[in-house]
Amino acid sequence: MRRTVFNEDHEAFRETIRAFIEAEVVPVYDEWFAAGQAPREFYYKLGELGVFGINVPEEFGGAGLDTHKFEAVLYEETSRAGVNFGGSGVHVLLALPYLKMLATDEQKKRYLPNFVSGEEMWALAMTEPGTGSDVAGMKTTAKLSEDGTHYVLNGAKTFITGGVHADRVIVCARTSAPSAEDRRFGISLFAVDTKSEGYSIGRKLDKLGLRTSDTAELAFVDVKVPVEDLLGEEGKGFYYLGHNLASERWGIAFGAYAQAKAAVRFAQQYVQERTVFGKPVAHFQNTKFELAACQAEVDAAEAVADRALEALDAGELTPAEAASAKLFCTEVAHRVIDRCLQLHGGYGYMNEYPIARLYADNRVNRIYGGTSEIMKTIIAKSMGL
């Protein structure tokens, strides 16, 4: 089926990224996997390549575009190669929308040039131990000092992707207690410098998948955050978080579709090369039927992911549509990758094969950004149920 979502600029970018992956990532990826993170220096290379600046205004060193299509190409190309770019996805997909939406001109001048170059990597700290998807239940506090020059931050966060290498973290904290009418009231966002006294990184978490993406626990003990680093208005944090959830969920949906597409590619190559009972595995009817069924599911997921991308770029992707895309694409990816691993037999369980890593990486897609169960709740609510 002919796709209409990408143009010549996107395809030129695809060629550049594909060559970059082959030269800079594939040869060292096993080292990253063993270390449990991409090296900090790698992000400078992405900065030099211009990856971080695509959606940043030109006056701050970016390309000045307003589109997620280049991110979509990145998802497809990293999945195709069986690699990922560590915590850099959070830097662009999660942190940048908040900076563009909330930062003052003064803040943008301070933050964005280093954001584009990779000199300052950003992460988003929302989840807390014991709260999970219940953002309104957060306990981390930020209290304004008596002289009004800074906030005092106390609390803890967990599952923070990019948290080990981050130079600044957008931290969600309570600046006031929830009201009786609205428990979501009183949350604010802060751009916290990770070099601040009292800021500490706990464990680098040992994850099932996404092994090259650093994920950490963070702790704040009387961290002084200058009032100049408050993002947006005090108390409106929950609204801001909700505003950007559609783009986050689109990213997870598109990434899952790209992984499913890659899985079919890996399985197709493997069954043509692997011989059983004197024949290539690809010659057996079951293999053909399994891959054909997987391809049909990938075609459907591609259409859903592309439609959501066009709606997102047009500013028209609703929360329910984003939830639907995430639910469908992540569930398709789960089924397709499992079936493609099965076609690899015992080798599919070995980490030296990309399908095994893909299987582990994919599992979190149905959890983070809102679980599949929460996606169903959102969709049902939009149906008036």
From TrEMBL:
One of its GO terms (molecular function) is oxidoreductase activity. Residues 123-223 form the Acyl-CoA oxidase/dehydrogenase middle domain. Its cofactor is FAD. Residues 7-119 form the Acyl-CoA dehydrogenase/oxidase N-terminal domain. Its EC number is 1.-.-.-. Pfam families: Acyl-CoA_dh_1, Acyl-CoA_dh_M, Acyl-CoA_dh_N. Residues 235-383 form the Acyl-CoA dehydrogenase/oxidase C-terminal domain. It comes from the Bacteria. This is Acyl-CoA dehydrogenase family protein. The lineage of its organism: Bacteria, Bacillati, Actinomycetota, Actinomycetes, Kitasatosporales.
